[in-house]
Specification:
heterodimer, A: 167 residues, mainly beta, OB fold (Dihydrolipoamide Acetyltransferase, E2P), 6-stranded mixed beta sheet, 5-stranded mixed beta sheet, 15% helix, globular, B: alpha+beta, Four Helix Bundle (Hemerythrin (Met), subunit A), Alpha-Beta Plaits, 5 domains, 24 helices, elongated
């Protein structure tokens, strides 16, 4: 695949991260396929329990359908499927993180929600190809907190179609 | 008096007046001597002129001023209205509408020169034909009472003796809004005065010392370069008391000096005036006059007394309408929609409780309360929907002009008969339906109605008729365009469709005339032998169909050769709510809009016949293909071993098709929520709706779904 092209915006992103040393990320962290991920807290609208999802026919396989969120109809995606991770059964810890991306609201199914953390920008490294889990394309960087790796998701890319598969 | 100029008010008002102009001109085309309409058009032009003057749109003022002048002449029977005049005026109207369109962009780039010249030419031609009779201001000549609206520039024009330019009118209104009194001054200089220009110079010097000159006739420059003028009319604003002004201006050479506070005419002062004698005469009698004046010849021919304005704009009392931003109503509607959803949940909860607790006083109480809630929330929703309703005339009013223009261009005789223009429908629908309707009307005029010669040959009247109708039918509104033209040529349509690979020969052979007629809505289909600039090329009927379907509506055509065609658009009354049939299939609930539904039948397995491996049933000797909803939507197949299932027969793409579903739930009014995300975009699904138990039902976009199936995509 055209890695040079794909890399370009990501690298620029990280340069931004490095330049502003003072910057602190406030992240909502969650579990997905054994890894810890973080997304910008400002993008998160709310976190809700799993509920009945209405199928929408002929949509991408990672799109689970739509739910009624207090009178609003919002699409729900399965983040495992989105990242081509091994599918798993819904558990009592499963949650839907409702985020706003480009003024559109979507819900993302995750294995469980951890906590809100603050992360200094200088603790975030550019992503390398070998981090497990999600596609390289959706990752802004990798942060480290007490020897725990937190994968920073580039939330804006999650909504992109079609899903990129990079190996 | 301060004059508040609200641009939006002007635009709204202007749109009304333009409509009056348009309708008036069209009416005059049929009956050029109708005085009532002539007056109406005159008033509209006048009101538009006044308004545009106030907001400072000089181009608009110029054009409407000419229009007004022409209609003034027509009213006074000094000019006979000809079709040539009307053509010019229609052109002017087009330019005016262009100008209006430019208000938003704040730049008036439209060139008004060409049409303005044409208008001037009409006025000049009349002038040369015979100079207007001079009206002398004398007691013997009683003030003529005319039906004419008032405005302040008119009052000024009346006094000053000529019409005001836009700039002057604007200037004047500005001055008035600054609250300094404005005075009218009339000065006649004695014949003995030698150097009139010098004297005039002195007067203007004084005027400028005392206050601010608004305007004068003749203008200052002319007076100072010329000794021929012995009279001058001046409007100026000043805070100096009237007596002091008089003292200042009372010079030996002055033969007559009249000073009066200038008041913009209001209905009250006008009425007063009507009971008085001629204003100038009356004023004259109040002053000492050195010498009995000879006839004061008023250079303005007819601008004398005015009468109370008739239209409602600006009236301060008795108005029962309220302008509200439509966004506010949308918010209300949204809230009411949520209330309706809530209400359905209440009903559900109440029923569940009754099941658990049985009937007792409390559950009966609850039931009664819930019933009340239902009634109120339904009424609330309906009332809010009512707020959004506007008369379809908003769209229809464009068409007489369009038909006229095309008919003239093609030299066809066409009567357009509009019916039901007061029929109301949702504003959002009105906004969207204009283009499709326009296309249908143009189509009828262009392709439907035959040429005069052809009609004669067929033994029809030379003048064709196009009907434009609107009426309610259940919870739908029906818009019809009907013509008595040549109708569709079914064999030609079939061969064209085959030629364009829309259908196969075999399909063409087995197709009913009705189905064939609806082929005109297929993409890429156009039977017009020559491409004209009127009906466009290729793109056409299929776009009409798409637009109508986007509004959850259906469009159909019925046509008979040499008798005519009828295009019927059926739309829901509103875009926000649809009546739908709820069905269950697989583990999902779907809503099929009732506008598409023809009937529902229960089908048992043994009734099914297989045609080319496809399921079909026969109802009243008609074979109807069955599409299993779960299959076409790929949502996990239902058990096909069931002995009976339900078939919802719908009309789509000119065909009857049955949707096979597991069971029926019932009819319900649904608030449509769009699936506003590319993630869950599915052609064939129009949106979702929240049901009473807070679950979601997907709303089927019947036409798109059927199209996809026919195209072999689903």
């Amino acid at each position: 695949m055209s890695n040079t092209l794909d890399k370009l915006p990501v690298v620029q992103n990280n340069q931004n991260l490095v330049v502003s040393d003072e910057e602190v990320f406030q992240l909502v962290t969650f579990f997905l396929g054994g890894e810890v991920y973080g997304i910008d807290i400002l993008a998160v609208q709310e976190i809700i329990r799993m509920q009945n999802i209405t199928d929408v026919p002929r949509t991408a396989d990672y799109v689970e359908g739509v739910i009624n969120l207090r009178g609003k109809v919002i699409p729900i995606i399965d983040l495992r499927k989105r990242f081509n991770l091994v599918a798993s059964e819904e558990t009592k810890d499963s949650r839907i993180i409702v985020v706003e991306i480009h003024h559109k609201i979507i819900g993302m199914i995750v294995d469980g929600v951890s906590k809100v953390i603050r992360l200094n920008a200088d603790l975030v490294e550019p992503p390398s190809l070998i981090v497990g889990g999600a596609d390289y394309n959706y990752i802004k960087g990798v942060g480290r907190i007490n020897d725990q790796l937190v994968i920073l998701l580039d939330i804006e890319k999650i909504n992109d179609v079609p899903a990129m598969v990079v190996v | 008096m301060a004059i508040e100029i609200d641009l939006q008010d002007f635009i709204d008002e202007a749109e009304d007046q333009i409509r009056v102009l348009n309708d008036g001109l069209l009416a005059l085309e049929k009956d050029e001597n109708n005085e009532e309409i002539i007056n109406e058009v005159f008033r509209a032009a006048h009101t538009l002129k006044g308004g545009s003057g106030l907001v400072g749109f000089s181009k608009l003022t110029e054009l409407t001023h000419h229009l007004e002048s022409i209609f003034d002449l027509i009213r006074d029977k000094k000019l006979a209205l000809t079709s040539m005049h009307l053509d010019v005026m229609f052109e002017v109207l087009d330019v005016i509408m262009e100008l209006m369109g430019e208000i938003d962009s704040d730049q008036f780039t439209t060139d008004i020169e060409p049409v303005s010249k044409k208008l001037k030419a009409i006025l000049d031609a009349q002038k040369n034909a015979g100079s207007p009779p001079i009206v002398s201001v004398k007691k013997s000549e009683p003030a003529k009472i005319e039906t004419k609206p008032f405005d302040l520039s008119d009052g000024a024009a009346e006094f000053i003796g000529r019409d005001l330019t836009a700039e002057e009118a604007g200037n004047l209104s500005k001055m008035l809004s600054e609250r300094d009194p404005i005075y009218e001054i009339f000065i006649r200089i004695s014949q003995d005065c030698d150097v009139v220009s010098l004297f005039m110079f002195m007067i203007f010097n004084k005027i400028n010392e005392l206050g601010e000159l608004v305007l004068s006739n003749p203008p200052e420059e002319e007076l100072q370069n010329n000794d021929d003028f012995k009279e001058v009319r001046i409007l100026f604003s000043s805070i100096v008391l009237i007596d002091d002004i008089r003292k200042e201006l009372q010079m030996p050479e002055v033969e007559i000096l009249l000073i009066e506070p200038f008041q913009p005419e209001t209905p009250e002062t006008l009425l007063e005036k009507l009971f008085k004698e001629d204003p100038v005469e009356a004023i004259l009698s109040d002053f000492v006059i050195k010498e009995e004046p000879k006839d004061i010849e008023d250079p303005a021919p007819t601008k004398s007394a005015l009468v109370v304005k008739e239209d409602s704009s600006g009236s301060k009392s008795g108005s029962t309408t309220l302008r509200v931003d439509s966004v506010k109503i949308d918010v209300l509607l949204e809230l009411a929609g949520e209330l309706v959803i809530n209400k359905t949940r209440f009903v559900q909860v109440q029923q569940d409780l009754e099941k658990i607790l049985g009937k007792n006083v409390k559950t009966s109480d609850l039931k009664e309360t819930v019933t009340q809630l239902m009634r109120i929330s339904n009424e609330l929703q309906e009332s809010i929907m009512q707020l959004r309703m506007v008369a379809v005339d908003q769209v229809f009013s464009r068409f007489p002009r369009v038909v006229r223009d095309i008919a003239n261009k093609l030299d066809k005789g066409i009567d357009l008969i509009v019916e039901g223009k007061d029929t109301e429908l949702d504003k959002s629908v009105v906004e969207e339906i204009g283009d499709p309707l326009m296309h249908l009307v143009r189509n009828s005029v262009d392709h439907g109605i035959e040429s005069k010669a052809e009609r004669k040959r067929k033994g029809k009247s030379e003048t064709g008729t196009v009907y434009l109708r609107a009426f309610h039918q259940g919870s739908s509104i029906v818009l019809e365009v009907q013509d008595d033209g040549k109708g569709l040529d079914i064999p030609v349509i079939k061969s064209k469709a085959v030629q364009k690979n829309i259908i196969t020969e075999a399909e063409a052979a087995s197709m009913s005339d009705k189905e064939a007629a609806n082929l005109v809505f297929a993409p890429g289909f156009s039977t017009a032998e020559s491409v004209s600039d009127l009906s466009g090329r290729g793109v056409g009927m299929d776009v009409v169909k798409k637009n109508v379907e986007r509004l959850n509506g259906v469009v159909e055509i019925v046509s008979e050769k040499d008798v005519g065609s009828t295009f019927t658009i059926k739309l829901p009354l509103t875009l926000a709510i649809i009546s739908a049939m709820l069905v269950r299939t697989s583990r999902n609930i779907y809503a099929i809009p009732l506008v598409n539904v023809i009937e529902v039948v229960e089908v048992s397995k043994k009734d099914i016949v297989h045609i080319a491996k496809k399921e079909a049933i026969s109802i009243r000797n008609e074979t109807i293909n069955i599409l299993r909803l779960d299959e076409v939507l790929q949502i996990g197949n239902t058990n096909r071993e069931l002995e009976t299932f339900q078939v919802v027969i719908v009309m789509a793409v000119g065909e009857r098709i049955g949707f096979g579903v597991d069971s029926l739930i019932g009819e319900q009014d649904l608030v449509i929520k769009s699936l506003d995300s590319h993630l869950v975009e599915c052609p064939g699904i129009a949106g979702a709706s929240i049901l009473g138990d807070a679950s979601l039902a997907l709303i089927v976009d019947v036409s798109t779904l059927v199209e996809k199936v026919i195209a072999g995509i689903y």
